[in-house]
Amino acid sequence: MTDKHPEPIALADLLSQCGAGGPENPVTLPQSWTQGRTAFGGLSGAIAYHAASLIEADLPPLRSTQIAFTGPLFGALIAETAMLRRGKNSAFVQSEIFGDKGLGLHCNFIFAAPRPTEVRTYDIAAPDFPPLPGDSDLHSGPPQFFTSNMEYVGKRIDTSTKTNRLTRWMRLKQRAGLDPVAEILCMCDSLPPSVMGLLDKNAMVSSMNWQVNLIAESPATQDGWWLIDSHTHHADHGSSSQYMSIWNSHRELIATAMQSVAYYA
Q: What is the C-alpha separation between 135 and 222, in angstroms, rounded?
């Protein structure tokens, strides 16, 4: 008898398939890493970053990325990268993901070396931190959905309570051998768009554009847990704008983000 739901494939294994990208390194998209009719956006972003990070051997750390979700991605995913500019301290790398229906993701990655500075500021309000999850009462999504690769407490979103803010501890089940920056890009998109907390549960949403800024020099956390906070600060005319942040188990800020989301309600 054929297993209807094969063993899940770790993110690190999919990134290994991609390598530095190109037609000779296609990533076969598993059903377990999809959301609806497309690849999970966090997976697509992680693949694009992985290929971009290998374009040259001595790239500095990733500082920022702009990601445009241009269309659905499915089938064999192919990353194509290009060095836009390489300076003394920074590198701008373009990375695009193509699927069976053409271009589905367009990214610009900014890699930049740290510089000595006397100017420092920190002005972001921390969310309310729920207790760090234990090993009991953990949930995952169905085998055909990307959340089957993750663990969390309760539901990712409770549609019975109308709210414009979602905050959850999330982690990947399989984390061995994973680049922490790829993990951050994957997990930062693991919550539903926070505008869904204001909509009927059957309403459709679609992420359009995403900006992520890396704050931490060396991202790390306890037992793989990341606190994801998403706050819709404006929604009208079928388009919402949300602020996002990701924190580690020590309540340290790891990355900030902003996303534009289309909604149909």
A: 13
Backbone angles phi, psi at 237, to 5 degrees: 55, 30
In 3D space, the residue among 82, 79, 102, 104 whose CA is nearest the CA of residue 93 turns out to be 82
Bridge-based pairing of strands 27-28 and 138-139 is unpaired
CA–CA separation, 105 vs 108, rounded Å? 10
Report pLDDT digits (tens) over 213-254: 999 988 999 999 999 999 999 999 999 999 999 999 999 999
User: Where are the strands (E) in 102-200, listed by range?
Assistant: 102-112, 138-139, 150-153, 165-172
Torsion of CA 143, 146, 150, 155, to 10 degrees: -90
Contacts of 3 (CB under 8 A, 6+ apart): none
pTM score above 0.85? yes
The conformation of residue 197, written as its DSSP 8-state character, comes to G
SS3 53: helix
Q: For Cα atoms 230, 111, 194, give the angle at the middle one, nearest 5 degrees.
A: 10
Q: Please classify residue 166 by burial: count the beta carbons closer than 10 Å to its beta carbon, then call 0-12 exposed, 13-18 middle and 19+ buried.
A: buried
Contact (CB, 8 A) for 80 and 91 = no
Domains of the chain, first to last: 11-112+131-264 (2.40.160.210)
Quote the tokens at residue 86: 């390489």
